[in-house]
UniProtKB/TrEMBL annotation:
Organism lineage string: Eukaryota, Viridiplantae, Streptophyta, Embryophyta, Tracheophyta
Protein location: Cytoplasm; Secreted, Cell wall; Secreted, Extracellular space, Apoplast
Keyword annotations from UniProtKB, A to Z: Apoplast, Cell wall, Cytoplasm, Disulfide bond, Manganese, Metal-binding, Oxidoreductase, Secreted, Signal
Protein name: Germin-like protein
Catalytic activity: oxalate + O2 + 2 H(+) = H2O2 + 2 CO2
Family per record: Belongs to the germin family.
Cited function: Produces developmental and stress-related release of hydrogen peroxide in the apoplast. May play an important role in several aspects of plant growth and defense mechanisms.
UniProt domain Cupin type-1: residue ranges: 62-219
Binding of oxalate, residues: 109, 114, 119
Length: 231
């Protein structure tokens, strides 16, 4: 068939395949008003099975989270209180969650990523120095660092999957922010914790080569207590 072998037909077929693949790879939108997570179901799916809608009530969409109350921060000087589908079952399939982040003076939410969500952050109190790093790029751009100092009322966006952080530069006053994330379960990978605090540990030969340092430096880092600031 001459048409099937023509360059234009092959290009069209390739484009259709790409579009079809992207459609399958993306999360589907809700096909009903809601799908409250049935945490007790033995069925395992990508997300959670829907609870019988006849058994749904207002409490499935509610949590007395006390997000107006300050939290105790950890040794890096922050505390992330995340409200996702595990706290509010009604978030299942809705693609959103929220977090309150408390920062001690000179505290930080250390470099981390959300593998499944873009984050939009609003400063409620204080000042924050924030930034993110782009993915690997060919030279000369490489990994571009974008940063900004935010004051009360300012908003900043961290694109999905990119390494980012927030730091409170004030040595005397705490800071507070609220973040919305575009997933019912955004996930968080704190870079230092994942690399140096994994269980079991990554070989110090691998990390010494990757970071171009001596193995005893890696051994010292792996011996530290890498505390999780996400609650």
């Amino acid at each position: 068939n001459q048409m099937a072998s023509s360059p234009s037909f092959l290009l069209l077929a390739a484009l259709l395949a790409l579009v079809s693949w992207q459609a399958v790879a993306s999360d589907p939108g809700p096909l009903q008003d809601f799908c409250v997570a049935d945490m007790l179901s033995p069925v395992r799916v990508n997300g959670f099975v829907c609870k019988n809608p006849m058994e749904v009530n207002a409490d499935d969409f509610f949590k007395a989270a006390a997000l107006d109350k300050p939290r105790v921060t950890n040794k890096v000087g922050s505390n992330v209180t995340l409200i996702n589908v595990m706290q509010i079952a009604g978030l299942n399939t809705l693609g959103i969650s929220i977090a309150r982040i408390d920062y001690a003076p000179l505290g930080q939410n250390p470099p981390h990523t959300h593998p499944r969500a873009t984050e939009i952050l609003t400063v409620l109190e204080g000042t924050l120095y924030v930034g993110f790093v782009t993915s690997n790029q060919p030279a000369p751009n490489r990994n571009k660092f974008l940063s900004k100092v935010l004051n009360k009322g300012d908003v900043f966006v961290f694109p999905v999957g990119l390494i980012h952080f927030q730091f409170n530069p004030n040595p005397h006053k705490p800071a507070v922010a609220i973040a919305a994330l575009s997933s019912q379960n955004p996930g968080a990978i704190t870079i230092a914790n994942a690399v140096f605090g994994s269980d079991p540990q990554i070989s110090d030969d691998v990390l010494a080569k990757a970071f171009q340092v001596e193995k005893n430096t890696i051994d010292w880092l792996q011996a530290q207590f890498w505390e999780n600031n996400h609650n």
